[in-house]
Amino acid sequence: MLLCSILLLTGCGNSNLKWYVVSPATEQGRINLKFLLSGTKDTLLMSLLALGISIFVGLLIAIPGIARQKPLRATNVVYVELVRSIPLLPLILWVYYGLPEIAGVQLDYFWAGVFALALSDSAFEAEIFRAGIQSIPKGQSEAGRTVGLNYFQTMWYVVLPQAIRRILPALGNQFAYMVKMSALVSVIGLQELTRRANELIVTEYRALEIYTILIIEYLVIILIIGQGVRWLERKMGSDELNAGR
Amino acid sequence: MTTQQQPAVLMEDVHKWFGNFHVLKAINLDVAVGERVVICGPSGSGKSTVVRCINYLERHQQGRIVVDGVELTSNRKTAARIRSEVGMVFQQFNLFPHLSVLQNLTLGPIHSRGLSQAEAEERAMEYLDRVHIPEQADKRPAQLSGGQQQRVAIARSLCMEPKIMLFDEPTSALDPEMIAEVLDVMIELADEGMTMVVVTHEMGFARRAADKMVFMDEGQIVETGTPDQFFDAPETERCRQFLQQILHH
Ligand SMILES: Nc1ncnc2c1ncn2[C@@H]1O[C@H](COP(=O)(O)OP(=O)(O)O)[C@@H](O)[C@H]1O
Ligand SMILES: [Mg+2]
Prior knowledge:
The structure holds two protein chains of two kinds.
Chain A: H1 2-13, H2 27-37, H3 40-65, H4 70-84, H5 88-103, H6 109-134, H7 138-146, H8 151-181, H9 193-204, H10 207-236
Helix pairs in contact in A: 2-9, 3-4, 3-6, 3-8, 4-6, 5-6, 6-8, 7-8, 8-10, 9-10
Chain B: E1 9-18, E2 21-31, E3 36-40, H1 47-54, E4 62-67, E5 70-71, H2 76-85, E6 86-89, H3 101-111, H4 117-130, H5 146-158, E7 164-168, H6 176-191, E8 195-199, H7 203-209, E9 212-217, E10 220-225, H8 227-232, H9 237-247
Parallel strand pairs in B: 3-8, 3-9, 6-7, 7-8
Antiparallel strand pairs in B: 1-2, 1-4, 4-5, 9-10
Bound molecules: adenosine-5'-diphosphate (ADP) and magnesium ion.
């Protein structure tokens, strides 16, 4: 529905649009569409991997952020402030072109993208986790410790499961953001969605039509993510947290 | 039975500060094995802090606390050991809302006592029986009434088979009609010989179950005595006033 109305709007508003380049009705249109869609796998896979890594690293960085010891908290602050102030595009270029010079490591397009996205996002994930953990009442971890759990068991079995339910919407946001930001990895040549679109424009010269399709591709992916997160929220029963403490 | 047993809890000249605020001033308290001690006193007098120091949720800065023969020091292993020997029931229940009642009860025994899932569940059902709510095992805490939640919290502590049970105002957050069901469970526990330190203003419970009454005010223990002495002939004026206030409400 939404997609159709966007197509119609752009179509009606400007008669210069030539939709034949991506029309499923013509042979060439079908080939072009298929070409555009072939970037989906890399966009999704790269975003998913980067998300997984950044959640893991973010959690590792968040834990010292809530420690009683000042030096540990300082580590957290330095990491978060430093990493989140690096713009993503230079970071991608730096990882791809800089790492071989400095560390002798040449990552391919895909892994350079995963690495840069994950690194950049981990600072945000760390802050989300820290806020989530701190929102769980102190009585919960105290109760965990009075039944003999140590610090990490209390974190793992008592605090984190509750914190994650609370931060699910924020994690969903980060995932959507990550998918969109992954477009920047096209600059080093990874043939994800945006790169495919740019390549097709070079041969077809129909930038507006092709970019419109590109935007719709991202829109669909992110709508699906949104629904997935809502489903998870229901499944994990976030509402049951509000009573009973 | 040996006649010369070490006390379950011994506090000697314990001091504690929150920043500049001197919250505990020279606390001396001993609790014998099997003894029931009730602590009362005005709000802010340091009752919770005393109880929380006993299972090391708070650290004291001066003096000695010995629990079950082990002195509380900053050693992490000691703290963990003491906590698994000392059960604690909070005013706000602090049940784990994301777990079922049964899982609330098995978490400690499985991960800290090393019981298998089956053993832990068997034990959990046994203690749910003891607090008279075995039929609620599969519910979430939020689906229970306050009185039921507090009984689950008591069962959760008992599943660790602690040597000492601490209660910090266990009925203060409850609606009046649910207080009795929780106190009944506590009295049963007392009758079975559990060592208990209970912060409460429920004087009916105190008369029925306490061996020793402790009255605190402004971070100090002002008066100690048997329930009879304490209720019928309080020695200090502050204690007399306090008792008048709570008994007439
Ligand atoms: N974590 C804390 N930080 C600072 N002050 C505290 C803290 N916990 C308790 N207090 C203060 O210590 C005093 C005693 O508290 P508490 O032991 O809870 O008293 P009670 O249980 O008798 O009402 C109160 O004045 C309270 O405000
Ligand atoms: Mg209190």
